[in-house]
Amino acid sequence: MTNYVALLRGVNLVGRSGLKMADLKALAEELGLKSVRTYIASGNLLFASGKPEEKLRLMLERSLQKHMGKQVRVMLRTAEEMTAVVRANPFQKAPGKNVQAFFMNDAPPKDLLSTVRNKADDERIAAGKREVFVAYGEKGIGRSRLKIPAAEAGTARNMNTVAKLAELAREL
């Protein structure tokens, strides 16, 4: 059995993209996933399974599409990979709430930095294994105009959340 974290893209509490975390947990249990739990209501699912990652990702995406009536992209990481993301954060000195890890299913492109648009002088960007790290400046993420085309299909979590998810995944 491997412990996983599933990070859902574009899931909110209410509105058209609304998904109750109790429903997400139930969907995962219906798929036969073990030790299922959610963390904060932003599309974070923790579970254990012996199935391969790609099969799990596709199972979750199909189940979510059926339940929600729209495509929901899922990024999966093992507990070890989540811990590695925490360690790989190149902006360790910045407050965790100001650093976002954009999770993707593939590695960032080699030309990542040349494709970025609207970067403020105090925003910093770095590529990870299957992540893009962004340290937001004084304006914070809420007022940033930064566009990262390579990360648009992924989903972001701040490093405080990433660290907590890594801890929870190890404890499953």
General description of the model:
The protein has 172 residues and is an alpha+beta fold. The protein folds into two domains: 2-77, Alpha-Beta Plaits, CATH 3.30.70; 80-171, 2-Layer Sandwich (Alpha-Beta Plaits). 31% of the residues lie in helices and 24% in strands. It has helices spanning 21-30, 53-68, 79-88, 112-115, 159-171, and strands at 2-8, 34-38, 44-49, 74-78, 99-103, 124-127, 131-135, 155-158. The strands form two sheets. It has a four-stranded antiparallel β-sheet with strand order 2-3-1-4, with helices on both faces. Strands 6-7-5-8 form a four-stranded antiparallel β-sheet. A hairpin with a 5-residue loop joins strand 2 (34-38) and strand 3. The mean pLDDT is 94.
